[in-house]
Design a protein that fits this description.
By secondary structure, the protein is an alpha+beta fold. Among the domains are: about 1-35 and about 60-100, no CATH class; about 330-360. Helix content is about 20%, strand content about 40%. The protein has four helices and 16 strands. It has helices at about 50-55, 115-130, 255-275, 335-355; strands at about 15-20, 25, 35, 45, 70, 75, 85, 95, 110, 150-185, 185-215, 235, 245-250, 280-310, 315-320, 325-330. The strands form three sheets. Strands 4, 7, 8, 9, 10, 11, 12, 13, 14, 15 and 16 form an eleven-stranded mixed sheet that branches. The longest helix is centred in the C-terminal third of the chain and has 24 residues, at about 255-275. It is flat and about 95 Å long.
Length: about 350
């Protein structure tokens, strides 16, 4: 059965939204601050194998929801199945969709929004101006021309102990002197130069590493990754934090998330192996990795997401709701790029000519 939640003001009963400024549920009408209870107990890692076993023996999830009824004004509106929290388009009441949030693994913790929407718009505007290759008209583009939306995005974090056996070879760089003839001022002269060579030695070994909180986005909706998160400030999950924002449920399940986490771990393992091989050059010909003691957490992280249209093309971007880091697309000026490339080529040609004429 579908169920939505509103968060009424303790003083006047109006719908509340979470305030970045106060860190509380603040009433937009009577300004009364409604305290949000925070639980700072340690977020417990869950055993991956045990959770996977339970998931495979649980009933199927409910089907998608096509409409929702606001409990405040009784209006009926569409609320997609993957949307956990949103607002009523008629009265602005914050709602949480019970059916949408129905996932066998519930969020354990979240990072509340720390950057306000006004601050996010300012960050967006400065970001547009900061790019040298941007069209001049873009610098006058207003942040108000894009619709900024605060969203809690689902993530997985994975811990794992790994043991890897590898084989490869270590390269040691050395130089040999080589003579050659060159035309200098119309005359043929014998010159010498140092030619780089590499001496390779076969190597093999073992690598043991523990990975903590490898972060994997559990949503397909965003195409940009904001990697810097202060996960040490996670608070226990409370729906009050979602009031006034949208929130998604995970679409990338626990198994697929682990596959992506392993890809990240593999990349870091290979980098560590190269450091262990040492030398001037490293080549890895084979790696076999065993994973054990795998645990996970399901958390929500805050972002502002939006898109803007410039000269008929849509560009999307996201802003980290904690530290203001921004990532996304923006237009480039072909004229500026061509001018820059032309200048670089001209300088390179001038340097080459001066060198050939013995002026350098």
């Amino acid at each position: 059965m579908q169920k939505e939640y509103v968060f009424p003001c303790e003083q006047c009963g109006a719908a509340l939204s979470f305030s970045v400024a106060t860190g509380e549920l603040t009433c937009p009408y009577c300004t009364h601050i409604n305290h949000v209870e925070r639980a700072f107990t340690q977020v417990v890692e869950k055993d991956y194998d045990e959770a996977l076993y339970r998931l495979k023996h649980l009933p199927q999830q409910p089907s998608a929801v096509t409409s929702s009824k606001c409990p405040a004004c009784a209006a009926t509106f569409e609320l997609q199945e993957n949307i956990h929290a949103s607002v009523c388009p008629f009265c602005g009441s914050a709602v949480v969709n019970e059916v949408a949030r129905y996932r066998h693994i519930r969020p354990q913790a979240l990072l509340p929004f720390k950057i306000s929407s006004d601050a996010a718009r300012k960050i967006f505007k400065e970001w547009l101006k900061s790019h040298w290759f941007a069209p001049n008209k873009l610098k006058h583009y207003g942040a108000e021309e894009s619709t900024l939306k605060g969203i809690y995005i689902p993530y997985w974090t994975y811990d794992a102990q790994t043991f890897s056996h590898y084989s490869g070879r270590r390269g040691t760089v050395y130089y040999e002197t080589q003579t050659y003839r060159a035309a200098i001022n119309g005359r043929s002269e014998v010159r010498s130069r140092q030619v780089q060579k590499i001496r390779w030695t076969p190597v093999s070994g073992n690598m043991s590493r523990f990975f903590d909180d490898v972060l994997v986005m559990a949503s397909e909706s965003l195409h940009y990754s904001l990697l810097q998160w202060d996960l040490e400030n996670l608070v226990n999950y409370d729906e009050s934090f979602l009031s006034g924002y949208e929130s998604e449920v995970y679409s990338i399940d626990l198994e697929r998330g682990l596959e992506r986490a392993k890809a990240t771990m593999e990349y870091r393992i290979r980098a560590a192996i190269k450091r262990q091989i040492g030398g001037d050059r490293q080549e890895i010909t084979g790696v076999e990795t065993a994973y054990s003691s795998i645990t996970f957490k399901h958390i929500l992280l805050p972002v502002y997401a939006s898109a803007f249209t410039f000269e008929g093309k849509v560009y999307s971007y996201v802003i980290n709701g904690r530290n203001g880091a921004i990532s996304g697309e923006r237009p480039y000026s072909i004229i500026k790029i061509v001018a820059a490339v032309t200048a670089v080529v001209a300088i390179a040609a001038a340097l080459y000519y001066a060198n050939e004429q013995g002026l350098l």
